[in-house]
Amino acid sequence: MVPDDPGEGFRVTDRRRQDSEVEARPVAAEARPAPAAPPPPRPAQPQAPERSLAGLFMMLASSAVVSMGEVADPVTGQRHDDLDQAAEIIDLLVLLREKTEGHRSAEESQVLDELVYDLQVRFVNARKRAG
User: Where are the domains of the chain?
Assistant: First the structure.
């Protein structure tokens, strides 16, 4: 049933206190909270090394050198020859050189060219050693 008179029916009463109803009481100085001290300085967190294309090239090249057995694997401390993996990494660097042509800085291009050349020479020598 809908009431005919809009004054009839549902009614909402706000029972919260209004600011005018709150008594203004002075707060004693000792009751006031002390100002918050500034938080202690955070310990300096080591910043992540800056990521760069040259860094990616160097990371891949170091993996290739490990795969050729020229340096010990940093995880195991053992030397091992996996020339197939080394060849794949060198091919990946050559592919990156082709695909990033025109988008590298002069420094990045120089690093990549020198790495590819050096790795190719090392690979030929490693293949000769393996027989």
Answer: 53-130
CB contact set of 52 (below 8 Å; sequence gap of 6+) = 108
pTM: 0.61
Q: In the structure encoding, which two tokens stand for residue 52, read together? A: 């760069």
Token pair for 21: 């109803």
CA angle 97, 69, 110 (to 5 degrees): 25
Distance CA 18, CA 87 (A): 80
Name the token pair of 11. Answer: 């009614």
Where helices occur in 1-131 by DSSP H, the ranges are 53-67, 83-99, 106-130
Using the structure block, give the residue that is written with the tokens 């020229």: 70
Mean pLDDT by 10 residues, the chain (131 residues): 59 68 55 69 71 92 94 88 95 96 94 97 93 79
